[in-house]
């Protein structure tokens, strides 16, 4: 299980590297890494456990954030209506975004990051819909099409694998200006 002490913070060079592709068959270490990353997200969304262990409730976690420069990220987007049926629960291995909609989207509250302790205000414009090619645990290539909030989370995590942080994408000149055609997601 990871705790906040295990999460690498901005300033550590590992967050600015392009991570290495994961090799198949998965090593025991990589299997454990995937399990531990998803476990963090599950436990951090359990209010009682998160409170007890002072965890920030996470919807996504990328391997570089726990100090492992490999192309693996976990995503767990809860479903307000039914906690037992998350909107998206997936481990993305060697993910590549192969299609971006022209339509842009941004979270109305801006973004944050488990690895960035400071608050950086401003809209983070992203694609509203994306198609991701990734490998599953057996090494088979899979395709995932996501839109809106789950797509924002996937883009945020895949950025981590390529050394990007959310605030890199906030406009320096006008952080709260948005192209009028951008979908604002609350
Ligand atoms: C940085 C933090 C504020 C902890 C953010 N959580 C979040 O935005 N809210 C949240 C948490 C839940 F558990 C359930 C829920 F529906 C909403 C987050 O996990 N990330 C993931 C991250 O830092 N990955 O590297 C930041 C988000 C900003 C936009 C997408 C991911
Ligand atoms: Zn992040």
From TrEMBL:
Active site residues according to the UniProt entry: 157
EC numbers: 3.5.1.88
Similarity annotation: Belongs to the polypeptide deformylase family.
Entry cofactors: Fe(2+)
Lineage: Bacteria, Bacillati, Bacillota, Bacilli, Lactobacillales
Cofactor note (record): Binds 1 Fe(2+) ion.
Catalytic reactions on record: N-terminal N-formyl-L-methionyl-[peptide] + H2O = N-terminal L-methionyl-[peptide] + formate
Keyword Protein biosynthesis recorded: yes
Protein name: Peptide deformylase
Domain of life: Bacteria
Residues where Fe cation binds: 113, 156, 160
Role: Removes the formyl group from the N-terminal Met of newly synthesized proteins. Requires at least a dipeptide for an efficient rate of reaction. N-terminal L-methionine is a prerequisite for activity but the enzyme has broad specificity at other positions.
InterPro entries (UniProt xref): Peptide_deformylase, Peptide_deformylase_sf
GO BP terms in the entry: translation
EC category: hydrolase
Gene Ontology MF terms in the entry: metal ion binding; peptide deformylase activity
Keyword annotations from UniProtKB, A to Z: Hydrolase, Iron, Metal-binding, Protein biosynthesis
Keyword Cell inner membrane part of the UniProt annotation: no
């Amino acid at each position: 299980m990871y705790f906040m002490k295990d999460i690498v913070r901005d300033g550590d060079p590992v967050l600015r590297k392009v991570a290495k592709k994961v090799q198949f068959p998965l090593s025991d270490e990589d299997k454990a890494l995937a399990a531990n990353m998803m476990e963090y997200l599950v436990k951090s969304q359990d209010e009682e456990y998160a409170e007890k262990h002072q965890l920030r409730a996470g919807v996504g976690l990328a391997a570089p954030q726990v100090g492992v420069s490999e192309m693996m990220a976990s995503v767990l987007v809860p479903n307000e209506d039914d906690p037992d049926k998350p909107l998206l629960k997936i481990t993305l291995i060697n993910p590549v975004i192969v299609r971006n909609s022209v339509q842009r989207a941004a979270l109305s509250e801006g973004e944050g990051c488990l690895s960035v302790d400071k608050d950086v205000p401003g809209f983070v414009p992203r694609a509203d819909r994306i198609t991701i090619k990734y490998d599953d645990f057996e090494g088979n290539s899979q395709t995932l099409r996501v839109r809106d909030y789950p797509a924002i989370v996937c883009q945020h995590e895949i950025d981590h694998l390529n050394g990007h942080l959310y605030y890199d994408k906030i406009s320096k000149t006008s952080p709260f200006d948005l192209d009028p055609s951008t979908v604002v997601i609350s």
